[in-house]
Write a structure and sequence with these properties.
The protein is an alpha+beta fold. It has a domain of about 45 residues. The protein has 13 helices and 24 strands. The longest helix has 12 residues. The relative contact order is 0.05. It is found in: Nucleus. Keywords: DNA-binding, Metal-binding, Nucleus, Repeat, Transcription, Transcription regulation, Zinc, Zinc-finger.
């Protein structure tokens, strides 16, 4: 028997599955009972039977609905014993506690990245294996976790459940709303403990911390652009070379990333999975749906994205961002959820 096979047989995960005889046919996960397997199967089908009576969100489990309702009631039963902060969810308290202890009990064996929750580690390991067992029933896109699939499902309806109480803006994710609210309140909750600077968003705070730790940026060897993630640098490097691995099988179009190829392929298949909930018109991409929705809200009536370096004004945010890249080739930060220009002198 091969040594690697022996390791696999005796791995903690395999030993654990011996006590979980009920296995999912879609992802292979082991469950201790048939009822637990039944609940787990709903994560693949997208079924969410518990509906919030105050908004359109729905949940797989009853306890998730109970936790969600605290967003509406403002209840914060989870209090930090080291400071006066309180939280609506237990996981938020655990995440906050690490600011005091710096504890990351779960570590990835491949890259040593630390996590507070075991579930976060499991989802992270799929970035190494490429496993995406949670598949969208509408567009076929795969995801590494059921929560990511849940967030993705909302993009098909165009519904944004997190509404700002100060203006008409609405957001798909709660963290986006929190970041937006700081513009109204002026609050900067992320305080650097090594200097006097404070920040309104966690992303800007993390970028600033690298200034103290001397953490190196991923710098392009062909130009002056710098990125905070190696994967973003890898995508950027393809702009300098002829390597475009994502080739359309119907025409000569090549794309820098798989997501761009998927959107392009829909021009051949006619697939339009993103539906406007105001007029039922459908679109091939989330971006084109967003532009269309603005025709209902009137947001397209004027150019509102002003460049801070020149007099140019843009109708769409993506046009503004592309312009900023050309003006500031060495200050680009790409995050998982957004493309953000960061002036390194300001942090």
């Amino acid at each position: 028997m091969d040594i690697s096979d022996n390791r696999k047989i005796n791995s903690p995960l395999t030993l654990q599955n011996r006590d979980k005889p009920h296995h999912c046919s879609q992802c292979g996960k082991g469950l201790s009972s048939s009822s637990n397997l039944g609940h787990h199967m709903k994560t693949h089908t997208g079924e969410r039977p518990y509906q919030c009576s105050l908004c359109e969100k729905s949940f797989l489990h009853k306890y998730e609905l109970k936790n969600h309702l605290r967003i509406h009631t403002g209840e914060k039963p989870f209090k930090c014993i080291q400071c006066d902060k309180a939280f609506s969810q237990n996981y938020e308290l655990k995440r906050h506690t690490r600011e005091h202890t710096g504890e990351y009990p779960y570590h990835c064996p491949q890259c040593s990245q630390g996590f507070i929750f075991k579930s976060s580690l499991i989802s992270h390991t799929r970035t190494h294996t490429g496993e995406k067992p949670f598949v969208c029933s509408q567009c076929g896109k795969g995801f590494s976790s059921s929560s990511n699939l849940g967030h993705h499902n909302i993009t098909h309806t165009g519904h944004k459940p997190y509404q700002c109480s100060h203006c008409d803006k609405a957001y798909l994710h709660n963290y986006e709303l929190k970041n937006h609210l700081s513009k109204h309140t002026g609050e900067k909750p992320y305080q650097c403990n090594q200097c006097v600077k404070a920040f309104s968003t966690e992303n800007r705070f993390k970028i600033h911390l690298r200034k103290h730790t001397d953490e190196k940026l991923c710098v392009c060897s062909q130009c002056d652009k710098a990125f905070f993630k190696k994967c973003d640098l890898t995508i950027h490097l393809k702009t300098h070379i002829d390597e475009n691995p994502y080739q359309c099988c119907h025409c000569d179009q090549v794309c820098l990333c798989n997501c761009s190829l998927i959107i392009h392929m829909r021009t051949h298949t006619g697939e339009k999975p993103f539906l406007c909930n105001l007029c039922e018109k459908d679109f091939p991409s989330k971006g084109s749906l967003g532009q269309h929705v603005r025709t209902h809200t009137g947001e397209n009536s004027e150019k509102k994205y002003q460049c801070s370096h020149c007099d140019k004004v843009f109708l769409h945010n993506y046009g503004h961002k592309n312009h900023l890249v050309k003006k500031n080739t060495n200050v680009v930060s790409v995050t998982r959820h957004s493309f953000e220009m960061i002036n390194l002198k300001d942090i």
